[in-house]
Amino acid sequence: MGETLMLGQIIKLIRLLGFGRAVRMKRRHEEGLKYVRGYAACSCWWALMNEGLLDALADKGQVHLADYAAQRGLDRAVLDATVEYLDKIGLLHLQAEQLSLAEGGRELLAEPRGLFELLYAYEPCFANLEQLLKGQKRYGRDLERRITYVGLGSGRLCEQLPYPIMRRMVLEHGCKQVLDLGCGDLALLAGLCRQDKQIRCHGVDFSPEMVRYDEQRLAEEDCGGRLTVQLGDVFDLPELPPPVEQVDCVTACDTFHEYLQEPERIVDLLNRLKERFRGALLVVGEFCLQDGEWLRRHPTASLEHHLFHELSGQQIGTAAQWRDIFAQAGLTIVEEQVFDMIGHGYFALRAR
Length: 352
Known about the structure:
The protein is α/β, with parallel strands linked by helices. Helix content is 53%, strand content 16%. It folds into two domains: 3-108, Orthogonal Bundle (Arc Repressor Mutant, subunit A); 147-351, Rossmann fold, CATH 3.40.50.150.
């Protein structure tokens, strides 16, 4: 459409609506579009990310759309609509059947990718929000989060700060046999194995789906047999494989808060861990509740994270609550780092 023709139409609209009303309508539509486009773009991004197309673009640089659709058995009309939309909002670049990532798309596949995976994990809560609101459905009874994506999203986000801090605590204390409770996608342990060629790591997770994912990953890389995983309940730990019986460090990242509605269970668990693995270092990373007024002034991703937890019946404790729980379990904090601006804390603990 030519600029002259466009200008003429704008003038015509202003005459029809009046300048003030036209400006207000434009401003309000743009404000609403931020939220509508966010939902539409996120849904399209999820579909292509989960299908593997975005990773293919990241690995190969570009993909021939017709060939990819044929190889994967994808509906071409749906694929075209999705790709063309993401092309027009600047996340993909499509030219003559050749598809590549635009700069905006490359940025979203970097650090923010974990945000998309974690939101997808809790998407069932939002898809059923009206029913949850009316009491027609209940989390845990009628719907659940997608646990594998909890592990993937959390693992990717934790790689930015939590895991490096926790790994440093483990390694600086000279630990060589590490047991991770609620191990998720094994990212914490895999990083330890890469940093220390003498360390032996074992993860326990209660989700069969998550453990199956981990076993597939270990089939590709098990760090020379030094990284293993096992299905199990952290509150009723199974017998561990002989190579990891002599645990000198127990780690848990974002595991305990899921049981914070019954803090006495966490205290009891810590006591049992202390008795079973005498002398072991305990390294805990946990969410620490942020001040509500601070979040109003600084609306970080913690707002969405709090919403995920509230909709799924989970609680977030304050740093003071975690210190109290550790004290009740007879544990001394030998190192602590709490970052209020991101709502996360890290504690290295030993029995008194």
